[in-house]
Specification:
60 residues; alpha+beta; 1 helix; 4 strands; 37% strand
């Protein structure tokens, strides 16, 4: 996945109440945010694992 080139791919989802987006890549879920210059990847974890979101909440 080329998030650096396109930080908002068609399958990305904005996470409610948060500056983060999420996207699936294979069996992994990536939680990230970005600005004009930098892509910040906060969590990478198994797609159906609720722990990914718990970790993302701690990072905020």
């Amino acid at each position: 996945m080329l998030l650096l080139e396109e930080p908002r791919p068609a399958d990305s989802i904005s996470m409610k109440g948060s500056p983060f987006f999420r996207v699936d890549s294979g069996e992994y879920r990536i939680v990230y945010r970005f600005d004009d210059e930098v892509l910040y990847v906060s969590v990478i974890g198994k797609r159906n694992d609720g722990d990914v979101y718990k970790k993302a909440k701690r990072v905020e």
